Amino acid sequence: MGSVVSSPVGELAVATGVEQLVGQRKVKTSQNLEANWEAIGVMTRAFNGTPETAPEGTTDWILGPTLREQWDHPGRRAVIEWLMKVEWSWCLVSGGFALGARKPDGTLGAVVLVSPYQTGIPGDITDALEFVRALRPIGMPPSKKVGKAYKRMRARGFAAKDAIGEVKKRHCNCPHAHVRVMAVDPDAQGLGLCGKVMRVVNMWADDLRLALWLETYGTRNVAIYERFGYKTMEHFALKYKDDPVHEDAFGMMRLPVKEV
């Protein structure tokens, strides 16, 4: 069972149509994961993609050529769901919060996860301990569902984590919050739900004078986040041995806005 974790965030002031999913009080990670399957489902579908909506690029690169565009492959879905549970759990152990916005039919359509780091980027040991604590209630990845592809998939995952970590070290020594995940359900795209939750995150960060950091993929996503005040700090690539290079990774930061 997951350990009890506490969040310093408390109740956030949220706009109409936005709800705080976690971050108000102490929770047990394993129970909180079970209570938020709807949110994890949104994240999984968004990162998986469909023939009409692009997958999350870095995750798609980690999955590799065997599972690329295999939208309904049970192994692809299982691995992405596991990754989303890790992100949710990591958000909890880091004292973060999650927000959601609902579609007109009342189901959840968008989710954002945010981890605050008031003293700047965590050191390597702190980061590793957070990772271990996040994994504890979830268990190992579903490697058997992807067979021989898992070994190289795992290696790409660690290569991506290391590369992103180095980029963060160059830009995140200030107090900041990490926007871990911004996910919109494929059937909710175009409804303005991303904007609803991102504006709440911006207001929260401005109140605390915190910079916001995120990683994203592709110039289309860069343009979306620029609308919310983010600027590209670094355009970088992800590489692993002779695999195709993932060229279009971006680290972006939004500085807090002072009240006029």
Characterization of the model:
This protein has 260 residues and is of the alpha+beta class. The chain has one domain: Gcn5-related N-acetyltransferase (GNAT) (Aminopeptidase, 3-Layer(aba) Sandwich), CATH 3.40.630.30. The protein is 40% helix and 22% strand. The protein has eight helices and nine strands. It has helices spanning 29-35, 37-48, 57-63, 74-93, 124-135, 149-171, 193-208, 219-226, and strands at residues 4-5, 18-22, 27-28, 97-102, 108-117, 176-184, 211-217, 231-238, 246-254. The strands form two sheets. It has a seven-stranded mixed beta sheet with strand order 2-4-5-6-7-9-8, with helices on both faces. Helix 7 (193-208) links the parallel strand 6 and strand 7 (211-217). Helix 2 packs across helix 4 (74-93) and helix 4 (74-93) packs across helix 5 (124-135). Pfam families: Acetyltransf_7 (PF13508). InterPro entries: Acyl_CoA_acyltransferase, GNAT_dom, Trichothecene_AcTrans. One of its GO terms (molecular function) is acyltransferase activity, transferring groups other than amino-acyl groups.
Examine the secondary-structure arrangement and name the CATH architecture. Answer: 3-Layer(aba) Sandwich
Q: Any idea what the shape is?
A: globular
With strands numbered from the N-terminus, the spatial order across the biggest sheet is: 2-4-5-6-7-9-8
What is the CA-based Rg, rounded? 17 Å
- Terminal residue distance: 48 Å
Q: Ranges with pLDDT <50 over ≥5 residues? A: none
How would you spell out the order of helices and strands?
EEEHHHHEEHHEHEHEE
What does the average pLDDT come to? 92
The major sheet is characterized as: 7 strands, mixed
- By DSSP (H or I, 4+ residues per run), the number of helices equals 8
Fraction of residues in helix: 40-55%
CATH topology value: Aminopeptidase
Percentage of residues in DSSP E strands: 15-25%
The CATH superfamily name is: Gcn5-related N-acetyltransferase (GNAT)
Structural class: alpha+beta
Count of all domains: 1
Query: How many beta-strand runs?
Result: 9
CATH class reads Alpha Beta
Domain N-acetyltransferase: 112-258
Protein name: N-acetyltransferase domain-containing protein
GO molecular function, one term: acyltransferase activity, transferring groups other than amino-acyl groups
